[in-house]
Amino acid sequence: MIILGINDTHDASACLIKDGELICAIAEERCQREKNIAGFPHQAIKEVIKESKLSLKDIDAVAVANTNIVHTNLWSCNSGFSVADFIKINKEYFYKWIFTKEKPKLRKIFPNYKPNGNFYYPLKKIPFISSYETNEKKNQQLKNLRLGYISKFLKIEKTKIFFFDHHYCHAIYSYFYCKKRLSNCIIVTADGGGDGKYESVTVIKKNIFKTVLQSRTNLIGKFYSSITLLLGMNPSRHHYKVMGLAPYCKPYHKIKPLKIFLEALKIKNLSFVKNKNLKDHYFYFKDKLEDTRFDGIAGGLQEFTEIRLREWFENIYKKYKCKNFIFNGGVANNVKANKYLSDQKFVKSFFVPPGPGDENLSVGAAFALIKKKLGFKKTKKYIKKIDNAYLGNNLKLDDINFFKKHKLIRNNYIAVKDPNQKKAAKVIASGEVIAFCVGKMEFGSRALGARSFICDPSNLQAKKKLNDLIKKRDFWMPFTPSILKENYSSYIVNPKKIASDYMTMAFETTNLGKKHLRAAIHPEDYTVRPQIVDKKLNLKYYNLIWEFKKLTGVGGVLNTSLNLHEKPIIAKPQDIINEFLKLGNNFLDHIYLDDTLYSLKKSKR
């Protein structure tokens, strides 16, 4: 059985599963080069079919995430809106719906708006559906539009296309991505919304998969987005900047905002109860926090998030008497909250899968379809174990040849074969930064050594060069280390042996970790979001770090995603040329591609 999985909201993606094996999964943003893009994942579908060496006619069934979609999702606002646009939509759209009971149309507020990239669905035919209204007729119209387009594009009967609930997709994805498919565990999801819900709880006990809660009371994701915007950052993708800022806050600066957040949302059993005066999530806090320091707001919001999540998880534990947790959805991107939760006494095991955001919905939908056809018990045996996130497009010989023959490479770089990564390791040990591109691209929002920038994790000058000249990230944001499996316990404090393969968890560092990884840990609280590097899963990346260790004694490297700020992680070598080298002022000193080290000529530096 060959199943194509699709997510056609923001963070659109596609995957392909053949006879229970997850063959390939790719986010549409990597193909279109537009971050968080929404809509039909046309190019991602073409890529997963190509990577799987199949054709459209081989597909037996299609699984689509989200039974209903709101208008703003299909407008691809998360990709195309600026901070100013998000402020405008709050003032001229959401405010009127909530406070003046008007029903403005987005097309009138943004008459010239066009989504970034190619949207594919016919925008003019999309029925207007607000997140503040329930309209079954319009929902069905939109579902029929999606169904018809998918059927026509894939040349597949509509009876072979199935739609699945948003949070159900999150839950089932995270369970089958877990290396240990436990007989007893609890799956918790939380995000900014999907299919009209913000959270869910699923209990797995003795081969029974039962969703015991789906609701729209957990406003933590909504709060985080609103505060991100109030702090002048993009609410669709800059939550992590608020989280990174939080540790710099002095305790006395977060007293007031913490109180405001705690009063806004409380816990009762498994539900969240909002303050009766809280009618929205933007203007309420704008009024309450206008005389409060920015770092105090960030610190208060993060502590509020940790407190309320802990209370919620503890209540779930008390009700269902299980200490094994799996967490997924946008809120699970908060690695500091994940650390806080995993440290609790009522938690025995804790797992967050790669790409906790909506990109994973395509895979979740495909898994959901298998479960629908086979039942949970048989599905556990049918879906093959997944031990890595290298699910994207592989480097092709044509792409490699195009790169090395390109005039910008021939005229500016010296190419040296380096199949064992020894020369690349020497470059890193000398304090330089390397763009590292090997094998199959990672799935999810984290670079895991296939499409990464790499440098010495103990060298603060190398970090500064990477940040200032290449990544241009905010100064307060930490980087992250990739650590050899053999050295992990020397650097990371992880007594519960929580899985840390995908940079979805944060931990304390040992004294040696603070020394060897000082450029790759948070400079204020010394926590770290590590990746364990296993020789079996990414040999070239492992060898690079191993050779670096032989030169320096350090068993890890600083790793960050191979992209420019606000651009997706590169997918193919052509993206390096188009987005770095053609700009003229972003020439990279060293690029490692496949098995060759390209170093910028000294006359060009």
Structural write-up:
The strands form five sheets. An eight-stranded mixed β-sheet has the order 13-22-21-14-15-20-16-19, sandwiched between helices. It has a five-stranded mixed β-sheet with strand order 3-2-1-4-5, sandwiched between helices. Strands 8-7-6-11-12 form a five-stranded mixed β-sheet, sandwiched between helices. The chain has three domains: 2-81 and 119-168 and 367-382, 2-Layer Sandwich (Nucleotidyltransferase, domain 5); 179-352, Nucleotidyltransferase, domain 5, CATH 3.30.420.40; 397-604, DHBP synthase (Alpha-Beta Complex). Helices cover 38% and strands 19% of the residues. The protein contains 24 helices and 22 strands. It is globular, with a radius of gyration of 23 Å. The mean pLDDT is 94. The termini are far apart. With 605 residues, the chain is of the alpha/beta class. The longest helix has 27 residues, at 294-320.
Features:
alpha/beta; Nucleotidyltransferase, domain 5; DHBP synthase; 24 helices
The CATH architecture designation of the largest domain is: Alpha-Beta Complex
- The CATH class name of the largest domain reads Alpha Beta
How many strand segments?
A: 22
Spans of at least 5 consecutive residues whose pLDDT stays below 50 are: none
Tell me what portion of residues adopts beta-strand conformation: 15-25%
Shape: globular
What is the overall pLDDT average? 94
The largest sheet has its strands arranged as 13-22-21-14-15-20-16-19
Helical proportion, percent range: 25-40%
Structural class designation: alpha/beta
CATH fold annotation of the largest domain: DHBP synthase
- The number of helical elements comes to 24
How large, in whole angstroms, is the Cα Rg? 23 Å
Count of the domains:
3
Largest sheet: 8 strands, mixed
Full CATH superfamily name of the largest domain: Carbamoyltransferase, C-terminal domain
End-to-end gap: 53 Å
